[in-house]
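In this section we walk through a basic example: taking a raw amino acid sequence and producing a predicted 3D structure, encoded as discrete structure tokens. The instruction is simple. Fold the sequence below.
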Amino acid sequence: MYAAGFVAVAAVLLAAAAAASPSSDEVTEFEDTENIVEAVDAELVEHLRPHHHEEPRDTEPAVTVDGVEKQSLQQAVDAAEAGDTVEVSGVWRERVVVDTSDVVVRGDGNGAVVDGVGEGRVVEIEADDVVVENLWIRNSGFDPGAEDSGVYVDGDRVEVRNSTLTDVTFGVWIDGASDVVVENNTISGREDVTKPNRGNGVHLWETEGTQIHRNHVSTVRDGVYYSWSTDVHASENVMRDLRYGVHYMYTDDSRLERNVAFDNEVGFALMVSQDLRIADNLAVSNHGGSGHGMLVKGIDDTTVEGNAFVGNVNGIYVYNSHRNDFHDNLFMGNDVGVHYTAASSDESVEGNSFVYNLQQVYTTTTEDKSWSGNYWSDGRAADLTGDGDSDVMHRPSGAVEQMLRETPEAYVYADSPAFDAVRLAESTFPQWDTPGVTDRSPMETSPHDWRSVAEATDRRLNPAAIEDVEQDHGVEHHVDHDADEGHEHGDYGDEHEEGHEHTDGYDHEDSQNHEHGGHEHGQDDEHDQDDVHDDGHEDEGQDHGHGDEHGTGHGDEMTGDSG
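The resulting token sequence is shown next.
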């Protein structure tokens, strides 16, 4: 009975909505992002604004080794012995190679500059236990195929810290070295170079035990790029204006904690890796291209917990991934909270809050997937037993959501009585076993302080959801209910065609093959970015030829079934 009524009413609504045209809204500015971060974790705010060294004034270039002055920076480095410190002041327009172990190269604190004059690698480290600190390193070469970079690391236990790297192709390239520390640096590339032709902020190749902390990365290709790496810990980094804030490829047993990614095409891109811990990170306003706060593609046995996804196109996009735990995350003000697809399985989804997302969950599954113990701002909670969980199950993705996805013109009627009746039927009668997601024991109240996030920025919230919030929530909203808050309802950044086949709008074939000493190591990314998928409940693969060849014969092509 319900199904027949639903189809009839939907036909009328679709005809009435055919002429609807959503308006647009500007992208969240930096100040809004700062407010959101403060609402989620005030201690991270200090890392949002990059620090830069200032141009030295009235300072003659000088360099000393253990107190003895030298004529050039390279001469000083060559003269250094184990345990020596090279002190640098003023501007040095030369490139330098450090090949002595246990040497410190340190700026004097008054804006010491090493300028590569637009050629090659500015500082190249070929020894172990070297420290580079308190320098402004700038103006590398332009060739990503030659790994032109601010600092090139080919020694173990190297530290690059408290420095500024600007106008570089790659910021710090770590080439097969382990136990490297990159911390408290500002890294930015060149605005006049297109993203596919830039290098990465921190590029990790076959490294183990490396630590990446408190860096601010912008205007490069990917903020922190991992390839064939293990046991890497990255924390409190800020990534802005990038393709991917963080990009994992073939990397296992690593941790990503308390990082911020905003205004990127994808905040955190996790691909073809396993045994990761992704905790307490924040992804805000990632809209370009596919616009995922987090892309989880070919990821297994990984924990994603305590993160906040605010104002993205998709909070999380999960593709062909298995046995992962998604716990205690906040999804707020996204077009879609979680987009779950491509035969992903065996996930645990618990303790999350889904608040003010235009669509809480979208899935192409042909099964009825069961989640448990999450909070839903649009749920009809009723805790009759007093255990904190609702005794009325919630259906965030069912027949209505599927129809809206396939016919976005009907979105203006998403909160109509007829659609509500279908949702009520799905939640009330378990025997109506439609494909989608069901939370059989939703939480009555949220464990997250989402109201503080709402107060920090209200223009990312869904106007239809705001109307349903009780007055005692205490959140003051100033929203134009005739606008759709910059979202094309039901579109979510995808291009819809007949048959509902669409692509996530960023089709690129990037080739950065790096020949180095007779071998290639690579950033040969052939991405149909991110996903070419067919909404007939099947997502068709992404050819991922991330051809990382480094003398090991790794030439890898990833399809939708890889992982």
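Looking at the output, two observations stand out. Residues 1-28, 428-432, 464-520, 524-563 have pLDDT under 50 and may be disordered. The CA atoms of residues 13 and 92 lie 69 Å apart. In the next section we compare this with other chains.
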